[in-house]
C-alpha cells in the first residue's frame, strides 16, 4: 500500500539563498485529514507547491501515491487537486462559469458536467449565488467556491494551502463541515496547511509541526499533547524570579516532563497534577519564591507548539492575513 | 494536439464569457482609434503630404489604426497574466492536467478573440465617416482571421514579457515601450518608402507592417501582391512567439 504522500529528505533553496525546506521527512496515510502546522515563513507553501508539481526540489524526493512528483508530474496532476493560498478564481464571471471552465479542462464528460457542478455547488452551499459574479461574493464564499472547484474531479488527494485564511470563525466552521461531508462520501485524502492551532486540533487526524523548513513534531493531536505529559500546572511568579537555574533544578525532578515559561507564568508538565502539586509548591518555596496563582489544565496544542517552535502563534499575523485577503479580493 | 485544441477553445470560451459580463473596457479602448480616424485622418489628408496610392488618407490609415488597437489589447493581455500570477489563478491552472503549451496558446488565442471584438467595433464608425471598404465577404473574413492570429502572436509576446516582469507597474512601462515603436516604425500611418532607411530596415522585421499590409490590401486597396509573403511572415511570427512563450511560461509561477 502506497502512502498518499511520501517525502524523503526534501530540500528547497530559492535563488541559491533562502533555504525554505531543510530536509523534510514525512509520510501521510491515504484517507486521512492531515494538517501541516507552522508559523509564517516555515515552508508550508513551498512544500505544497513541490508536492503539486509546481516547483522542483533542490534535493530529496517526493511521491504522491507512489508517483514521483518530478518524474511523473503529469500523472500526479491527474490524481490531485489544489487550492492555493491566494485567491484563485476569476472574479469577472459567475461561480458556475468558473467551475464550468475547470470541468472542461479536466475533461468531465459533457453530459455529466451540469450535474457534477450543481452537486459541488450544493456541497459547498453556493447554489443560491451560482449565477452571480464572483466579485460580489464574500471572502468565505470565494474560499468555498475554490474548494468546490477542487472537488469537481473527485481527486484522490486534495492540497489546501491555508484553506480558511482570513475567514471569520463561523465561515471557517462551515468550510470544515462541508469538507468533512465530502471526505466521508469519497474517502479523499486531505492535506492542508494552517497556522490556526485550533483548526489542526479539531479537524486533523494527524498533524506535523513545521518550523524553519524542518518537521519538528509529528503525531495525532492527542499524541502531541500527551508527549508533554497528562497535565500542566501553571504558577504565576514574578517575572524576575524565573531564572535558568530554576529550570535546571525543576527538570531534575523525575516526575517533571517539561518546563515552559511565558509572560511571568511557569508551566510545569506532569502526568498527574494531584500527586505532584504539593512537592512542586514546597520546591518553589524552598527556592524562596512566592507563588501568586496556581492553575491546572490539560496541555494544549498551543503548548506543544510553544515547546517546538519557541513562540506561540501570534494574533498579529492573523489580522494582517485578513487585510491581505480582502485586498486581493477587492482588486479582482 | 486534440488536447491543445480543446484547452484553446475553453480559454476562448472563458474570454467570451468575460466579455458578455463586461464590455466597458472594449468601449474605452475604442476611443483612441476613433480619434485617429475622425480627426487625425481628415486633418492629414487635407495637407496631402502622404502618398497613399490613390486612396483617401483616412481610408489608408483605418486598417493600421485598427491593428494598433488590437495590438494594444494583446500586449496588455500579459498584464492580466501578471495579475493572475499574483493571485493563485495561474498556479491552479498549472496544477491541472492541461499542458503548458496549450495554456499559452489557449490564452494567446483567447486574447485574439478579444482583439477581434476591438477591431469590429471600429468598423461601423469608419463606415459612417465614409471609409470605403472593398465589399467582398471572403476578403473580409480573411482580414479578420489575420487580425485574430496576429493578435494571438502579440499576446504570446506579452506572456513572454510577463514571465520576466515581477510587477504590473514594470509591465505597463515595458508594454508602452514595445507598442509605440512598433506602431510608428510600421506602415500603419505612412508608406514604408517615406521612412528614413534605418527605419525602413527595421520595418522589415516589424510584424505589424505585414499585418497592416495584408489587412489594408484586403479591406481597402485590393492590392494583394504581397499577401502571400505577409501570411508567411505572420505564421513565422506566431510560431516563434508561441514557442518562446511556452518555454518561459513555467518561470511565471516560480
Ligand atoms: N518564490 C520564492 N522566492 C524566494 N523565496 C521564497 C519564495 N517563496 C517563499 N520563499 C521564502 O521561503 C520561506 C518559506 O516560505 P513559505 O513556503 O511561503 O512559508 P509558509 O507558507 O509556511 O508561510 C520564506 O522565507 C519565504 O520568504
Ligand atoms: Mg504559505
UniProtKB/TrEMBL annotation, chain A:
Keyword Membrane in record: no
The record's GO molecular-function terms, alphabetically, read: ATP binding; ATP hydrolysis activity
Give the way it sits in the membrane.
Peripheral membrane protein
Tell me where in this chain the ABC transporter domain is found: 5-237
- Name the source organism: Candidatus Terraquivivens tikiterensis
* Primary site of residence: membrane
Q: Which family does it belong to?
A: Belongs to the ABC transporter superfamily. Drug exporter-1 (DrugE1) (TC 3.A.1.105) family.
Q: What top-level branch of life does the organism fall under?
A: Archaea
User: Which Gene3D superfamilies does this entry report, sorted A to Z?
Assistant: P-loop containing nucleotide triphosphate hydrolases
One GO biological-process annotation of the entry reads: daunorubicin transport
Keywords assigned: ATP-binding, Nucleotide-binding, Transport
Q: Which PANTHER family match?
A: LINEARMYCIN RESISTANCE ATP-BINDING PROTEIN LNRL
Q: Report the locations given in the UniProt record.
A: Cell membrane
Give the protein's recorded name: ABC transporter
Q: Short name of one Pfam family for this protein?
A: DrrA1-3_C
Cellular component terms per the entry's GO annotation: plasma membrane
InterPro entries given in the database record = AAA+_ATPase, ABC_transporter-like_ATP-bd, ABC_transporter-like_CS, DrrA, DrrA1/2-like_C, P-loop_NTPase
Q: What is the lineage of its organism?
A: Archaea, Nitrososphaerota, Candidatus Wolframiiraptoraceae, Candidatus Terraquivivens
Amino acid at each position: 500500500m502506497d502512502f498518499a504522500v511520501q517525502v524523503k529528505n526534501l530540500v528547497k533553496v530559492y535563488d541559491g539563498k533562502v533555504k525554505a525546506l531543510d530536509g523534510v521527512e514525512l509520510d501521510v496515510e491515504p484517507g486521512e485529514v492531515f494538517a501541516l502546522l507552522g508559523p509564517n515563513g516555515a515552508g508550508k507553501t513551498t512544500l505544497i507547491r513541490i508536492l503539486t508539481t509546481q516547483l522542483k526540489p533542490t534535493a530529496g524526493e517526493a511521491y504522491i501515491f507512489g508517483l514521483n512528483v518530478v518524474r511523473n508530474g503529469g500523472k500526479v496532476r491527474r490524481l490531485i487537486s489544489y487550492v492555493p493560498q491566494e485567491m484563485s478564481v476569476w472574479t469577472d464571471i459567475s461561480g458556475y462559469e468558473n467551475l464550468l471552465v475547470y470541468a472542461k479542462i479536466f475533461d468531465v464528460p459533457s453530459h455529466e458536467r451540469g450535474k457534477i457542478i450543481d452537486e459541488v455547488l450544493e456541497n459547498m452551499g453556493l447554489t443560491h449565488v451560482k449565477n452571480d459574479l464572483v466579485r460580489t461574493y464574500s471572502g468565505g464564499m470565494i474560499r468555498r467556491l475554490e474548494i468546490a472547484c477542487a472537488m469537481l474531479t473527485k481527486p484522490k488527494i486534495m492540497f489546501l494551502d491555508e484553506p480558511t485564511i482570513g475567514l471569520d470563525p463561523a465561515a471557517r466552521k462551515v468550510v470544515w463541515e462541508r469538507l468533512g461531508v465530502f471526505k466521508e462520501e469519497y474517502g479523499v485524502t486531505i492535506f492542508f496547511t494552517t497556522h490556526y492551532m485550533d483548526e489542526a486540533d479539531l479537524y486533523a487526524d494527524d498533524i506535523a509541526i513545521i518550523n524553519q523548513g524542518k518537521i519538528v513534531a509529528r503525531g495525532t493531536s492527542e499524541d502531541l499533547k500527551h508527549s508533554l505529559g497528562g497535565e500542566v500546572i501553571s504558577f504565576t511568579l514574578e517575572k524576575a524570579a524565573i531564572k535558568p537555574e530554576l529550570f535546571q533544578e525543576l527538570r531534575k525532578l523525575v516526575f517533571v516532563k517539561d518546563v515552559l515559561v511565558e509572560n511571568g507564568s511557569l508551566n510545569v508538565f506532569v502526568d498527574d497534577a494531584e500527586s505532584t502539586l504539593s512537592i512542586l509548591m514546597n520546591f518553589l518555596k524552598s527556592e524562596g519564591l512566592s507563588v501568586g496563582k496556581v492553575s491546572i489544565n490539560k496541555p494544549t496544542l498551543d503548548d506543544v507548539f510553544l515547546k517546538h517552535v519557541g513562540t506561540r502563534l501570534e494574533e498579529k499575523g492573523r489580522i494582517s492575513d485578513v487585510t491581505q485577503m480582502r485586498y486581493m479580493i477587492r482588486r479582482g | 494536439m486534440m488536447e491543445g485544441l480543446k484547452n484553446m477553445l475553453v480559454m476562448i470560451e472563458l474570454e467570451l464569457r468575460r466579455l458578455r459580463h463586461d464590455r466597458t473596457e472594449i468601449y474605452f479602448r475604442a476611443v483612441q482609434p476613433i480619434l485617429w480616424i475622425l480627426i487625425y485622418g481628415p486633418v492629414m489628408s487635407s495637407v496631402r503630404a502622404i502618398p497613399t496610392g490613390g486612396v483617401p488618407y483616412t481610408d489608408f490609415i483605418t486598417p493600421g489604426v485598427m491593428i494598433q488597437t488590437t495590438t494594444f489589447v494583446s500586449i496588455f493581455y500579459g498584464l492580466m497574466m501578471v495579475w493572475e500570477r499574483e493571485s493563485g489563478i495561474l498556479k491552479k491552472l498549472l496544477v491541472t492536467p492541461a499542458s503548458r503549451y496549450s495554456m499559452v496558446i489557449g490564452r494567446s488565442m483567447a486574447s485574439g478573440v478579444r482583439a477581434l471584438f476591438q477591431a469590429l467595433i471600429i468598423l461601423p464608425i469608419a463606415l459612417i465617416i465614409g471609409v470605403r471598404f472593398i465589399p467582398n465577404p471572403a476578403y473580409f473574413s480573411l482580414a479578420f482571421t489575420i487580425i485574430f492570429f496576429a493578435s494571438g502572436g502579440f499576446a504570446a509576446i506579452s506572456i513572454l514579457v510577463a514571465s520576466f516582469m515581477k510587477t504590473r507597474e514594470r509591465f505597463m512601462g515595458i508594454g508602452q515601450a514595445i507598442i509605440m515603436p512598433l506602431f510608428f516604425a510600421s506602415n500603419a500611418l505612412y508608406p514604408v518608402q517615406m521612412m528614413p532607411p534605418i527605419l525602413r530596415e527595421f520595418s522589415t522585421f516589424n510584424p505589424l507592417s505585414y499585418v497592416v499590409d495584408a489587412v489594408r490590401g484586403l479591406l481597402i486597396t485590393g492590392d494583394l501582391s504581397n499577401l502571400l509573403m505577409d501570411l508567411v511572415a505572420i505564421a513565422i511570427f506566431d510560431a516563434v512567439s508561441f514557442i518562446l512563450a511556452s518555454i518561459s511560461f513555467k518561470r511565471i509561477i516560480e
